[in-house]
C-alpha cells in the first residue's frame, strides 16, 4: 500500500513539476527556460495518418534554389524561390505548370514579392508587395491589383476577401497608421479587428519600440503570429485577434527592451532562448528554438494542449552547417517514426485541414543522408540527387 | 357593406403597391452583382447573378439572362472552374438572339480563351476560328509547333479588306512569329508596317535586340514599352471614369425628362433652368477634362523624354549642374507653376529640396534619389518627413510626403 501511495505521489509531483505553468488566466505556456521535462524525446507519429511525397519537376524554367514561400491548395503548389523571377506553379503531383507574377512594370507583373497567400473561398492567388496586392486565377491569369496604404509585412488570407496583416517590422510603433496585427476586408476596405501594439509597451516610449521578425504558421481557424521578443503567440482568424499561448524565453526587462528597440537591429540577446519556428497539430503545440549564446544548438519543444505537459529534445544537428543547405533549417526536426523518412518540421501546418507541408532542398537531403545512413534506404529519398529540385512532403494528420 | 368593400379595395391596392415596390428588376440585380464582381467578392456576386438569371427567366428577358450567364462564366473562369465557366458561357450563347452577332463572336472568343487556358488547343482553335480571332488562333497554332500554318492564316487575313488598326495587329503578330523562328529581318519588315505609336512595337523591338545579343538596346526598348503601357493604362482609366460619369448623367437626365413630361407643363421652365445649369456644369466639366487630358499628354511626352529616362537610371552616376538644369526645365514645362505653388507653400525651399521634389514628382525610387543627391537612403527618408512637416505642419511618413507632392 505504501509503495502504491508513494508511486501515486511521485506521479503527481512529476506531472505538476513537468507540466507548463498556466498563467494569464487559462493560457498555456511553452517555458523555454524550464529545467525539468516529462520526457527527452519529442514525438509526432501518433498525429500522422499518412505521408505524401511530391518531388517538384525540374525544367529549365522551374529550377529552385532556396524556397522563400510556399502555398498548397487541393490542386496546386505555388513556390517562391531565390534566384527566380515570379512564383512557380506546380500541380499536386509536382509537374511544373507556369510562372506567375513575373518581374516587370506591365499589368500583372511585380516589383518585389513580399509574400503570397491563397483566398480558398474565392479561389484566388494573392501576391503581396508593399502597398499593393495582385490577384491571379489559378490559371495564372492576372485579375486585379489593389493598392493599400497599410504598413504590413505579410498578408495572410483568413476568409473570403479577408486578410490578416502583420505589421511592418523595424518601424517605430508611433508612426501614423502603424499597427501590430490587423484583420481587413480588402474588397470593402473595412477594418474587422486591429491591435495597434503587442507585447509590453511600458518598457520604453513607442517611438523607440518596433516589431521584430515575424514567425507565423496555420492555426485551427486562422494563423498563429508571433513577433520576436514578445511573450504571446496570437491567433488571428477572420473575426478576431486573440492570444493563443505564451512563450517564456527568459528575457529580463533590459534584454526585452534591447530586443524590441527600434534602434537595435536583428541581433539576438545573449543567454536567452529565441523561437525559430512553431506550429500546431490537433493535440499539440510545437516550437523550435535556439539558445542565443549558441546559435548552432537547437531544441524542439512539444506542449500538450490537454495536459500542459512539456517535452524538450535537443537536436544533434549543427544548425550553422545545415543553414548552408536550407535556410529554413527543416532538417532539424522531429524523428520520423511514421515511414522512417526525413525529420519532420513543416514549413506550414494547416491543422484545420489536417495537413502539414514540409520542404527539403536536395542538398539538405544529401547532407541528412550522410548524417543518418538509414535515410539512404528510403525509397523516395533514394531517387533524390544533389541536382534535384526540393522535395515537398505532405503529412496528412489524423 | 360599403365600408367592407372600401376596406377590401384599400387592402388590395396597398398590397399590390407594396409588391411593386419590393420587386427588383433583373437589371438592378445585375448591376449589384457587377458591383460585387468588380471588387472580387465572388460569392455574393454569383448568388446575385443566379437570382438575376432566375428573375430574367421568369420575365423571359433573354438579354438579361445571357448577360447573367456570361458574367457568371467570367467569375468561374477567374476561379479556374473550367466546366462551370464553359457551361455558363454556352448557356449565355444559347440565350442571345441571332441578331446579336458581335456578342456571339465575343462569347466564342471567351470560350476559346477558357479552352486555351486549360491547354485544350484544338477546342480553343475551333472557337477562335468561328469567333474570327485569327491572331489568338495563330498563337495556339504556334504554341503547338504549327508555325507555318499560323503564318499562312495571318497572311491570308492580312489580304482581306480590314481596317488599318487590324492590319497593324496582324503585322505585329506576324513579326512575333518571325522573331520566334529567328527570322529577325523579316520581323523588322513587318514591324515597319505598324505605326510607331503602337506600344507593342517596343516589346517586339526589345525581343529583336535581345535575340541579337544587344542587351543595352533591349533594355532601352523594354523601358519605353513599360512607360507606354502605364500611360495607356492611365488614359484607359480616365476614359472609363468619363464614360461612367457621362452614362450616369445621361441616365439621370433621361429619368428626369420622362418624369417632367408626365407632370404639369408649368414645371417645364424649371427643367429648362436645370438643364441650363447642368449644361454649364457639363461645359465646365468638359473644359476640366480637356485640361486634364492636355496635362496627361504632356506628362506622357515627359515620361518618354531622354532626361526622364536618364534620371530613372539605376546605374551609379552623378548629375552635373547642367543635368539638373535640364531636368528642372522639363519639370517646369510639364507641370506649369509647380515650383511657384511649392514656393508659396514653403517660402524657404532650398535648391536641394526643390531637386528632391522634382524627383518625387517624376516617381524616381528613393534609392535612386539617394544616389542622385549623394546621400543615404535614411537621409532621404528623413528629408521627406521634414518636407512633409514643412508643407502641412503635421508629422508624417516619407510615403505621405511622396503622395502629397505627386498630387500637388
UniProtKB/TrEMBL annotation, chain A:
Pfam families: DUF5128 (PF17170). It comes from the Bacteria. InterPro entries: 6-blade_b-propeller_TolB-like. Gene3D superfamilies: TolB, C-terminal domain (2.120.10.30). This is 6-bladed beta-propeller.
UniProtKB/TrEMBL annotation, chain B:
Residues 1-18 form the signal peptide. Keywords: Membrane, Signal, Transmembrane, Transmembrane helix. It comes from the Bacteria. The keyword Transmembrane helix applies. The chain crosses the membrane at residues 268-286. This is Tetratricopeptide (TPR) repeat protein.
Amino acid at each position: 500500500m505504501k509503495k502504491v501511495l508513494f508511486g501515486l505521489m511521485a506521479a503527481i509531483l512529476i506531472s505538476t513539476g513537468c507540466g507548463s505553468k498556466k498563467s494569464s488566466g487559462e493560457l498555456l505556456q511553452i517555458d523555454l527556460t524550464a529545467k525539468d521535462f516529462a520526457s527527452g524525446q519529442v514525438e509526432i507519429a501518433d498525429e500522422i495518418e499518412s505521408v505524401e511525397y511530391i518531388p517538384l519537376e525540374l525544367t529549365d524554367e522551374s529550377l529552385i534554389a532556396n524556397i522563400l514561400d510556399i502555398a498548397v491548395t487541393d490542386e496546386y503548389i505555388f513556390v517562391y524561390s531565390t534566384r527566380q523571377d515570379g512564383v512557380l506553379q506546380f500541380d499536386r503531383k509536382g509537374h511544373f505548370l507556369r510562372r506567375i507574377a513575373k518581374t516587370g512594370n506591365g499589368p500583372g507583373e511585380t516589383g518585389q514579392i513580399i509574400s503570397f497567400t491563397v483566398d480558398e473561398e474565392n479561389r484566388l492567388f494573392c501576391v503581396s508587395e508593399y502597398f499593393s496586392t495582385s490577384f491571379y486565377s489559378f490559371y495564372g491569369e492576372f485579375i486585379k491589383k489593389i493598392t493599400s496604404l497599410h504598413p504590413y509585412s505579410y498578408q495572410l488570407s483568413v476568409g473570403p476577401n479577408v486578410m490578416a496583416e502583420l505589421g511592418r517590422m523595424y518601424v517605430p510603433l508611433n508612426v501614423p497608421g502603424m499597427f501590430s496585427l490587423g484583420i481587413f476586408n480588402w474588397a470593402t476596405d473595412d477594418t474587422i479587428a486591429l491591435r495597434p501594439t503587442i507585447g509590453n509597451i511600458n518598457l520604453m516610449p513607442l517611438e523607440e519600440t518596433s516589431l521584430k521578425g515575424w514567425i507565423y504558421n496555420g492555426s485551427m481557424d486562422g494563423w498563429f503570429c508571433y513577433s520576436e521578443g514578445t511573450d504571446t503567440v496570437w491567433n488571428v482568424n477572420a473575426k478576431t485577434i486573440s492570444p493563443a499561448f505564451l512563450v517564456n524565453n527568459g528575457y529580463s526587462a533590459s534584454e526585452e527592451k534591447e530586443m524590441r528597440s527600434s534602434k537595435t537591429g536583428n541581433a539576438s540577446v545573449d543567454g536567452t532562448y529565441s523561437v525559430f519556428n512553431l506550429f500546431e497539430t490537433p493535440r499539440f503545440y510545437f516550437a523550435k528554438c535556439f539558445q542565443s549564446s549558441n546559435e548552432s544548438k537547437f531544441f524542439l519543444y512539444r506542449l500538450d494542449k490537454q495536459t500542459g505537459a512539456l517535452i524538450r529534445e535537443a537536436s544533434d544537428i549543427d544548425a550553422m552547417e545545415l543553414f548552408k543547405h536550407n535556410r529554413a533549417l527543416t532538417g532539424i526536426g522531429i524523428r520520423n517514426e511514421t515511414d522512417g523518412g526525413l525529420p519532420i518540421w513543416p514549413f506550414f501546418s494547416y491543422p484545420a485541414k489536417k495537413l502539414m507541408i514540409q520542404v527539403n532542398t536536395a542538398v539538405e537531403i544529401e547532407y541528412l543522408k550522410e548524417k543518418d545512413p538509414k535515410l539512404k534506404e528510403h525509397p523516395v529519398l533514394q531517387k533524390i540527387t544533389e541536382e534535384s529540385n526540393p522535395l515537398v512532403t505532405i503529412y496528412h494528420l489524423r | 357593406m360599403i365600408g367592407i368593400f372600401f376596406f377590401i379595395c384599400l387592402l388590395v391596392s396597398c398590397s399590390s403597391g407594396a409588391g411593386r415596390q419590393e420587386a427588383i428588376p433583373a437589371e438592378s440585380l445585375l448591376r449589384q452583382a457587377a458591383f460585387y464582381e468588380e471588387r472580387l467578392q465572388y460569392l455574393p456576386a454569383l448568388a446575385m447573378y443566379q437570382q438575376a438569371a432566375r428573375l430574367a427567366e421568369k420575365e423571359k428577358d433573354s438579354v438579361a439572362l445571357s448577360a447573367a450567364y456570361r458574367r457568371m462564366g467570367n467569375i468561374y473562369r477567374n476561379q479556374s472552374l473550367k466546366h462551370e465557366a464553359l457551361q455558363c458561357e454556352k448557356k449565355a450563347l444559347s440565350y442571345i438572339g441571332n441578331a446579336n452577332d458581335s456578342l456571339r463572336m465575343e462569347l466564342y472568343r471567351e470560350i476559346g480563351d477558357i479552352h486555351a487556358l486549360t491547354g485544350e488547343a484544338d477546342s480553343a482553335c475551333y472557337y477562335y476560328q468561328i469567333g474570327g480571332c485569327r491572331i489568338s488562333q495563330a498563337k495556339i497554332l504556334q504554341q503547338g509547333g504549327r508555325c507555318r500554318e499560323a503564318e499562312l492564316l495571318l497572311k491570308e487575313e492580312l489580304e482581306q479588306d480590314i481596317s488599318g488598326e487590324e492590319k497593324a495587329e496582324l503585322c505585329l503578330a506576324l513579326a512575333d512569329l518571325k522573331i520566334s523562328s529567328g527570322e529577325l529581318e523579316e520581323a523588322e519588315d513587318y514591324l515597319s508596317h505598324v505605326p510607331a505609336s503602337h506600344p507593342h512595337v517596343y516589346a517586339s523591338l526589345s525581343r529583336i535586340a535581345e535575340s541579337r545579343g544587344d542587351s543595352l538596346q533591349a533594355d532601352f526598348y523594354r523601358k519605353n514599352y513599360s512607360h507606354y503601357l502605364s500611360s495607356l493604362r492611365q488614359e484607359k482609366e480616365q476614359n472609363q471614369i468619363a464614360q461612367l460619369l457621362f452614362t450616369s448623367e445621361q441616365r439621370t437626365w433621361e429619368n428626369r425628362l420622362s418624369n417632367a413630361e408626365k407632370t404639369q407643363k408649368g414645371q417645364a421652365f424649371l427643367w429648362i433652368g436645370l438643364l441650363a445649369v447642368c449644361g454649364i456644369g457639363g461645359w465646365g466639366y468638359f473644359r476640366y477634362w480637356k485640361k486634364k487630358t492636355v496635362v496627361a499628354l504632356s506628362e506622357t511626352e515627359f515620361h518618354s523624354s531622354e532626361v526622364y529616362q536618364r534620371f530613372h537610371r539605376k546605374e551609379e552616376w552623378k548629375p552635373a549642374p547642367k543635368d539638373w538644369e535640364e531636368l528642372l526645365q522639363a519639370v517646369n514645362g510639364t507641370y506649369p507653376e509647380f515650383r511657384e505653388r511649392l514656393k508659396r507653400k514653403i517660402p524657404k525651399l532650398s535648391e536641394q529640396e526643390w531637386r528632391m521634389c522634382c524627383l518625387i514628382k517624376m516617381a524616381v525610387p528613393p534609392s535612386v534619389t539617394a544616389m542622385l543627391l549623394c546621400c543615404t537612403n535614411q537621409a532621404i527618408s528623413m528629408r521627406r518627413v521634414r518636407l512633409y512637416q514643412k508643407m502641412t505642419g503635421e508629422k508624417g511618413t516619407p510615403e505621405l510626403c511622396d503622395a502629397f507632392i505627386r498630387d500637388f
